[in-house]
Every structure is written in structure tokens, then in C-alpha cells.
């Protein structure tokens, strides 16, 4: 039995943030010291990002709300709403993206209708509400009243891979299962001005977006592009627990993202891949001999930042072309936390990947945790 990821779809909100413009807004904030200003300039300029998307239309130069919550365009000042106000905006805007992405995934899966969905798995670490997004999807898409629903919350940037693994396990246990997986992250709700280096780096990277797909053992239609979900692995690195974290503060969620993270990934990424490749002698040998880029054609690496991609490319001896999907995703959309790896996978599927090509997907998050998956292109 082959369990496949089908109907892979991505959605972004309409408001576009242009990186140099956002940099200039942050650099002009009152209360910044000289070091903070230098870090802003460097972080934004070397991020590898050109544009990002946000649900906050008031961050657009075309929007002039009478009572701004995040940005007073008249003074150019970033405001400091509390966590409650930010989370209320999450509940307001996230539902539409969950439903839009879920509906797109169903529509993109030939031979399948919303009524066929037996399970829903939602993913997010940027907000909470109940009844939650799993409920909203079931109601708005008209799913069966008995649809089983699960939410993976507050796990961080790697969470879409455990969601796909859970979906695959449900299908392996019940061959008739049809699992809708939807990730929505509204990271820009937690942006704020600060002299803290971690907060500045987060403000230069994070964005909003949604990804969704159908996981099922049902055979894809002839010619349909999909991924066979071959294997999953997880690894907690022996160091890095305090270098990447996501906490709830009085003025939004607070990211800890130290400059040690790329070095930690560089040191431990080979070990993190060992359990994924262990069941295939050729892959295990390729990993041991620095030939992973030759054994696996495509790499869906979560672009947590430009320096992380640089470290992965060198450590695994990947070609520049193999990192193009990740770098282009970072350039066009920024870091959308858990949804981002789905954008990279979609770019690979829409590109030159041929049936039978292997894909290694990896994402990194708090812990420091590395989640990975081995996929095969179908269609």
C-alpha cells in the first residue's frame, strides 16, 4: 500500500511587504540604540528575502485605518498591542486561510470530494481559539459530521512534517482514510520593535502563509502529480534547547533565535538524517561518504534563514540547484514557520522533478528538533 500526499496547495494573504521598506520602518523606530539599528540593517539586508505577505493590511502604505493597531502610518511608529489583541486578529484572519487552503487541496485532488474526508489535522504555532480551525474547516467545507479532528499546536517551524507523519499513520491503520492536513501561520501578528537581537532577526524573517494537502492510500489519477510518503524520522540535537524557542509574552509571542542555530544545524544535520536513511543501504552509504546530493535528487529544506540554507548546502554537499526551491521560497515569501516546507515541496513538484525522483524534506524547530521525511515523486 502506498500512502501519498496529493492536492498540495499553498495560499498567502494579499498584503505584500517589501523587505527594504519594512527595514526602513523598523530602523526609524524611536528608542533604538545604535547597535539595534546596525543589527536591523544587517539582518534585513542579508536575509535573502525580497517580499513577504501579511494579514495586516494596515502595514500597507495604501491603508490608513482611523484606529491603527500595529502601525500608525502618519507618525511611522510601530505600535505595541497586547497578546489578547494579537490573538483576536489571529482568530479573525486565520479561519479564512484555513478554509481557503483546505478547499484548494480538495479541489486539486482528482476523484475526491469534501465528503470523502475522514480526518482533519490542523497545524499552527501563532495563535489559539476554540472551537478551533479544525472545527471551522469541517463546518465551512461541509465535511461529514463524524469527521475526526486533530490540532498540532505550538510546535514551531517543523510541525507540518509530524502532521504528515500522523496522517500517513492514520492511512496505514485504515486504508480507507482520507486525511486533510492544513497549516496556517500568521507570524507577522507578533512583530514588534526592539533592541533585542533575537526579536530583530525574527522581524526580518517571519511572514504569513498557509499550506494544505490530502494524505490517502487511494490511487492517484493517471498523470496526477503527487508525493509517495516513504518514511519519516525525528531527532533532537544534544545541544540547542535554549537557542530556538517560542514563548508567550505580554505583547505577543516571543521568538528566541540565537545566532548559534546555523552552527548547531551544521554540526548535527548528518546525524539527524541517519535514521531517515538507515533502511536503505545506498542512502546510508551516500550520507557517510558526503554524496547525499547524488543519491537524493531534490531537497525540500525549511528555509529558516539564509545562513541555515548555506550550512545545509555545504554540510550535505548539495548543488546550488538543489537548494533553489528553498531559496526561492525564502526570497518570495519569507519564513512562514510550519507552512514553509509545504511551499518548498510544492515548488519541487511544480518544477522539473520526474516520476521516481526522491525528495528529502527537512524542517527545524524548538528543542532543537529536526524533523525529516523521504518522499518519491509520483505522476
UniProtKB/TrEMBL annotation:
Residues 8-217 form the Chalcone/stilbene synthase N-terminal domain. Signal peptide: none annotated. Pfam families: Chal_sti_synt_C, Chal_sti_synt_N. Keywords: Transferase. Residues 234-376 form the Chalcone/stilbene synthase C-terminal domain. It comes from the Bacteria. SUPFAM superfamilies: Thiolase-like (SSF53901). Belongs to the thiolase-like superfamily. Chalcone/stilbene synthases family. This is Type III polyketide synthase. It comes from Agromyces lapidis.
Amino acid at each position: 500500500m502506498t500512502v501519498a500526499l496529493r492536492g498540495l496547495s499553498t495560499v498567502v494573504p494579499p498584503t505584500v511587504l517589501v523587505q527594504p521598506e519594512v527595514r526602513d520602518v523598523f530602523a526609524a523606530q524611536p528608542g533604538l540604540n545604535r547597535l539595534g539599528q546596525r543589527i536591523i540593517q544587517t539582518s534585513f539586508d542579508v536575509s535573502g528575502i525580497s517580499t513577504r505577505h501579511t494579514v495586516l493590511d494596515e502595514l500597507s502604505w495604501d491603508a490608513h485605518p482611523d484606529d491603527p493597531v500595529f502601525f500608525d502610518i502618519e507618525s511611522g511608529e510601530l505600535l505595541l498591542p497586547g497578546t489578547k489583541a494579537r490573538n483576536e486578529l489571529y482568530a479573525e484572519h486565520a479561519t479564512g486561510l484555513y478554509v481557503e487552503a483546505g478547499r484548494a487541496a480538495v479541489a486539486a485532488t482528482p476523484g475526491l470530494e469534501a465528503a470523502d474526508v475522514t480526518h482533519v489535522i490542523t497545524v499552527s504555532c501563532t495563535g489559539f481559539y476554540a472551537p478551533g480551525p479544525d472545527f471551522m474547516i469541517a463546518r465551512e467545507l461541509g465535511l461529514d459530521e463524524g469527521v475526526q479532528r486533530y490540532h498540532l499546536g505550538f510546535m514551531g517551524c517543523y510541525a507540518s512534517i509530524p502532521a504528515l507523519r500522523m496522517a500517513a499513520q492514520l492511512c496505514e491503520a485504515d486504508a480507507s482514510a482520507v486525511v486533510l492536513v492544513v497549516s496556517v501561520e500568521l507570524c507577522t501578528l507578533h512583530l514588534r520593535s526592539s533592541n533585542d537581537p533575537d526579536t530583530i532577526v525574527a522581524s526580518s524573517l517571519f511572514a504569513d502563509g498557509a499550506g494544505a494537502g490530502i494524505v490517502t492510500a487511494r490511487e492517484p489519477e493517471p498523470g496526477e502529480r503527487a508525493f509517495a510518503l516513504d518514511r519519516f524520522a525525528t531527532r533532537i540535537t544534544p545541544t540547542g534547547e535554549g537557542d530556538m524557542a517560542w514563548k508567550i509574552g505580554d505583547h505577543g509571542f516571543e521568538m528566541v533565535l540565537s545566532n548559534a542555530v546555523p552552527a548547531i544545524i551544521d554540526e548535527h544535520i548528518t546525524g539527524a538524517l541517519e535514521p531517515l536513511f538507515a533502511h536503505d543501504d545506498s542512502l546510508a552509504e551516500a550520507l557517510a561518504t558526503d554524496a547525499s546530493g547524488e543519491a537524493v535528487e531534490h531537497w525540500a529544506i525549511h528555509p529558516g534563514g539564509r545562513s541555515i540554507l548555506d550550512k545545509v548546502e555545504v554540510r550535505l554537499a548539495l548543488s546550488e540547484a538543489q537548494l533553489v526551491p528553498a531559496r526561492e521560497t525564502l526570497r518570495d515569501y519569507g519564513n512562514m514557520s510550519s507552512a514553509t516546507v509545504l511551499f518548498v515541496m510544492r515548488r519541487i513538484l511544480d518544477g522539473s522533478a520526474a516520476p521516481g525522483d526522491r525528495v528529502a524534506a527537512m524542517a527545524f524547530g524548538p528543542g532543537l528538533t529536526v524533523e525529516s521525511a523521504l518522499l518519491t515523486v509520483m505522476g
